Amino acid sequence: MTADSVHAGGDPRRLLSQVHALSRRVRADRRVTWVALLVLAVATFVAIPVDWFGMQVDCAAGGACRFNRLGSLYFWPPALLLSYTVIAVAYRRVARSRGVDARVLPYAITGAALTGVFTAAWVGARIYVANHPPAPDAPPTADWILLLDRLVAPAGTIGVALLVLARLERNLALLAFTLAYLAIVLIPITFGWQMHTSVQAEFLPSQVISGVVLALGAAGFALARRRQR
């Protein structure tokens, strides 16, 4: 980044306005938001076939099925750690090429910590279900438990980490995008798309929609960045 000094003519208001404008420019030059969203979108799309073929499904004669998403469990922890590493490296390289500093390390650390929480919660849930299988006449799972489950799932942890990135970048557009993304993930919103052909297919709409939202977000932020140049 290059910035030419401008004489403020001794006017404190003009000098303060110039400082604020320079601060906004530095923050804008630090942002490579589209890279983060694109990397996470790619990870989300790659996870779909992994989850599909890695899911263990056991259906009883009466039609009731139990499933185990081992593919996702083995894929997502290393995939998320790799994603946050790629994002951190990309941010630092772009920031240095523009002559500014990148404040991406807290985001990468948060993402890695949330990955650990997600893995621990998933493993703990598997152990609990294995030792306490639900009875056939058990009541439906409470809504708050389902919400918590979606929050600690990979798509949910991605959204929580993006909130941290929005705070670091002071990026209101990213904050609005992340809140919309979390709403789609946590409710979840499938826009009427339902598939009941198999157990694997029931997870497909939400997975595809999450990936598409991240990809569209990456395209939108990349286009906005291009127009700012």
| Secondary-structure element series | HHEEHHHHHH
Note the gap between the termini.
11 Å
Query: Helix amount, in percent?
Result: over 70%
Shape, per Cα inertia axes:
elongated
User: How confident overall, as mean pLDDT?
Assistant: 81
Classify the beta-strand content into a percent band: under 5%
Oligomer: single chain
What is the count of structural domains? 1
Strand tally? 2
Radius of gyration, rounded? 22 Å
Transmembrane segments: 32-53, 73-92, 104-124, 144-165, 172-191, 203-224
Keywords: Membrane, Transmembrane, Transmembrane helix
In short:
The protein has 229 residues and is mostly helical.
Can you describe this structure?
It is a single chain. This protein is 73% helix and 4% strand. It has one domain. The chain contains 8 helices and 2 strands; from the N terminus they run H-H-E-E-H-H-H-H-H-H. The chain is mostly helical and 229 residues long. The longest helix has 30 residues. Strands 1-2 form a two-stranded antiparallel ribbon. A hairpin with a 5-residue loop joins strand 1 and strand 2.
Features:
229 residues; elongated; mainly alpha
Chart the SSEs and their pairings.
Elements: H1 12-30, H2 33-54, E1 55-59, E2 65-69, H3 70-97, H4 105-131, H5 143-152, H6 154-169, H7 172-186, H8 199-228
Antiparallel strand pairs: 1-2
